[in-house]
Design brief:
The complex is a heterodimer of chains A (112) and B (114). Chain A is mainly β. Helices cover 0% and strands 58% of the residues of chain A. The chains are: A mainly beta (112), B mainly beta (114). Chains A and B meet through strand 4, strand 5, strand 9 and strand 10 of A and strand 4 of B.
Chain lengths: 112, 114
């Protein structure tokens, strides 16, 4: 069976500090991978998606970047966090050609 | 769906009642629609989906209705239970785009009182 792991679950970081959130998928190969952000009281906003190793597409301009160093690993990063980066970050994967995406448990990031 | 405003709509129901959660979408090119349930502190979970060539689809205790004329989607939950308390999101996908590029609505908070 396939599983998705996302960590850490919660994170409190000072403004200006770096960020690294990691997401890994098990039990499948060559998945499409996604990073979403959910601000308080808002829906989910797609940040990045990847269809393969080293292939990253950004949906919105922002202070964040993403990388996919391995087939089943997706990393969300920032060099210097802003207060506005606070939110709930979700990683998701989908099997190519399938009709369902699976979400990780999310990381609640608070920038102070 | 469109994310608007800072306060999520809320719906409070009594256990055993039927719940109806509504959603409007804006992209007339969307041909695939999904409802997700998100419990506090967790990622969204798929509930039910519907394609634009249908106007109704039923699952276990849930029914999704699609009105393409007015770009409206609804989720009906029969005999609502306390475990149904969560935020419910609709999402839509234009034809020809990847599943992960869903556009999510802002969500509705459903509270079920025992």
């Amino acid at each position: 069976s396939q599983t998705i792991h996302q960590w850490p679950a919660t994170l409190v970081q000072p403004v200006g500090s770096p960020l690294s959130l990691e997401c890994t998928v098990e039990g499948t190969s060559n998945p499409n991978l996604y990073w979403y952000r959910q601000a308080a009281g808002r829906g989910l906003q797609l940040l990045f998606y990847s269809v393969g190793i080293g292939q990253i597409s950004s949906e919105v301009p922002q202070n964040l970047s993403a990388s996919r160093p391995q087939d089943r690993q997706f990393i969300l990063s920032s060099k210097k966090l802003l207060l506005s980066d606070s939110g709930f970050y979700l990683c998701a994967w989908e099997r190519r050609g399938d009709t369902e995406a699976f979400f990780g448990q999310g990381t609640r990031l608070t920038v102070v | 769906g469109e994310s608007v405003g800072l306060h999520l709509p809320t719906l409070s129901v009594q256990e055993g009642d039927n719940s109806i959660i509504n959603c409007a979408y804006s992209n007339s090119a969307s041909d695939y629609f999904i409802w997700y349930k998100q419990e506090s502190g967790k990622g969204p979970q798929f509930i039910i989906d519907i394609r634009s060539n249908m106007d109704k689809r039923q699952g276990q205790r849930v029914t999704v209705l699609l009105n393409k004329t007015v770009k409206h989607l609804s989720l009906q939950i029969a005999a609502t239970q306390p475990g149904d308390s969560a935020v419910y999101f609709c999402a839509d996908l234009p034809s020809g785009t990847s599943y992960g590029k869903l556009t999510f609505g802002q969500g509705t908070i459903l509270t079920v009182h025992p």
